[in-house]
Amino acid sequence: MSENKYDVAIIGGGLAGLASSILSARQGKKVILFEKNKYPFHRVCGEFISNESRQFLVSLGLNIDELRLPSINKLNISTSNGDSRAFQLGLGGFGISRYLLDHKLVEIARQSGVEVRENTAVTKLDFQDDLHEITTSDNKFSAKTAIGAFGKRSAIDKQMNRPFIKKPLPSKRNFIAVKYHVKANLPADTIELHIFKDGYCGISKVEGEDRYCMCYLTTASNLQEYGGDIKTMQEGVLYKNPILKDYMSSFPSLYDDPLVISQVNFGRKLPVENHVLMAGDSAGLITPLCGNGMSMALHSAALAFPIIVSFLKGNLNRPDLEQAYTTSWKRQFSMRLKVGRTL
Question: Are 198 and 207 in contact (CB under 8 A)?
Answer without folding.
Answer: no
